[in-house]
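Bug report

Summary: structure tokens for Helix-turn-helix differ between web form and batch submission.
Environment: batch mode, default settings.
Steps: 1) Submit the sequence below via batch. 2) Compare with the web form result.

Sequence submitted:
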Amino acid sequence: MSPAERAQLRATLGALLTAERLAGGWSVRRLARAAGLDRRTLQRLAAGTMRPREVTLHALASVLAVNDPGPLAARLLTAAGPSLRPNTDGAVRRRRHRAGLALVAGHRPLPSDLAERVRLHRTASAARAEAYGLLHRPGALDDPAVLDAIGQLLDESRQLHEQAGPAVVFRIGRHQIHAGWAG
């Protein structure tokens, strides 16, 4: 890569990545982890010493602009210009795999509407688990106060699940992660 190309990448893509990262309050390490990248890769992209792949820029945009990554991805691709390297099947597979790992580990943010649905389902499941815990206490079926508490918790659980909508299922490779009642 020529010094002129490095300077161009640093001035366009590097400056845009740094500005978006700082605006979102992301550290280099945290952003790299969330995007499924090595920290050094992100540093090299920002410094203009590495030609990016399209899939890498899309991964960064999906973290930096989680609710609407399209416009940021377009700006990143434009900033990369002719230095953009073509995707390969292997690069796409690796990026998807690493994005899945980041999601499972809780490093990758979810779009706000999806995150809210997952939160509601988890809260509903916790209320249901608490109700079942009360039900399994010795003498619970003979205590009207405990039965009332169980009824309230189960009603709360049902209302929260209805508010959350259908179950959220993440498919990552051959694995599935469920939030909510499937059925």
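Above is the batch result. After comparison, the two runs are identical; trailing whitespace caused the diff. The two ends are 55 Å apart (CA to CA). DSSP finds eight helices and two strands in the chain.
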